């Protein structure tokens, strides 16, 4: 799935297991950082622009360096260095990485039906076992779109009810502005809906 969906899914998990903004952000990042092994695409693109042969090969390394058990242990272990509740961040960070793997297993297929992304669970130390689902849907398929929209709807709800959004992982100040904007719009809609005669037709 795309990085935005991974971010929203991980943040939704974090929002329901910790009540500390820093720890929420760390768990969220744990669910996003496995895609660091896809940065080879940037190197490949740069080399192609310069007219050189690819030196990293995105297709060879993506889903192999951090998309498995070693990555699921390493990423949250590093992130706990900044955590308030280290054990909780490690455990739910581990879960967030596996949520990332599950999402990729379900919905990361390429345009062709045979272009299925497997998960090499012990990579980069071993190419076995391989976890593969032939029913994997395409990256831009409607289930991914529906899932992303549902996660966005949750984020809006969290802004109104809980007072924070996924923007907090980047900037708490920006998050406060986003929350204020969403709450103000929600309040205006609510006031408009309560006006006498709203929703009725003149006869």
Keywords:
about 200 residues, mainly alpha, 8 helices
Structure description:
The protein has eight helices and two strands; from the N terminus they run H-H-H-H-H-H-E-E-H-H. The protein has helices spanning 3-15, 21-32, 40-49, 58-61, 69-79, 86-107, 142-161, 172-193, and strands spanning 119-120, 130-131. Helix 2 runs antiparallel to helix 5 (69-79). The model has no long low-confidence stretch (mean pLDDT 87).
Number of helical segments with 4 or more residues: 8
The biggest sheet, with number of strands, parallel, antiparallel or mixed sense and barrel status, is:
2 strands, antiparallel
Distance between the termini: 51 Å
The total of beta strands comes to: 2
> What would the principal axes of the Cα set say about the shape?
globular
What is the H-and-E element order?
Answer: HHHHHHEEHH
Approximate strand percentage = under 5%
Our Rg estimate from Cα atoms comes to 20 Å
Mean pLDDT: 87
Unreliable stretches: none
Strand order in the largest sheet: 1-2
Structural class by helix and strand composition: mainly alpha
Assign a percent range to the helix content: 55-70%
């Amino acid at each position: 799935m795309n990085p935005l969906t991974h971010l929203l899914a991980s943040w939704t998990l974090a929002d329901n297991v910790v009540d500390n903004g820093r720890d929420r952000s760390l768990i969220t990042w744990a669910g996003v950082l496995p895609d660091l092994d896809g940065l080879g695409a940037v190197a490949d693109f740069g080399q192609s622009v310069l007219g050189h042969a690819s030196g990293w090969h995105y297709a060879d390394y993506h889903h192999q360096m951090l998309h498995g058990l070693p990555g699921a242990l390493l990423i949250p272990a590093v992130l706990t260095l900044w955590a308030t509740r280290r054990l909780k961040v490690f455990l739910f960070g581990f879960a967030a990485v596996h949520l990332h793997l599950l999402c990729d297993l379900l919905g990361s297929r390429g345009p062709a039906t045979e272009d299925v992304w497997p998960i090499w669970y012990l990579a980069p130390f071993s190419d076995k076992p391989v976890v593969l689902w032939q029913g994997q849907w395409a990256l831009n398929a409607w289930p991914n779109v529906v899932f992303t929209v549902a996660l966005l709807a949750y984020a809006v709800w969290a802004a109104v009810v809980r007072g924070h959004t996924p923007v907090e992982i980047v900037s708490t100040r920006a998050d406060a502005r986003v929350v204020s904007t969403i709450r103000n719009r929600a309040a205006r809609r609510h006031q408009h809906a309560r006006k006498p005669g709203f929703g009725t037709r003149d006869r």
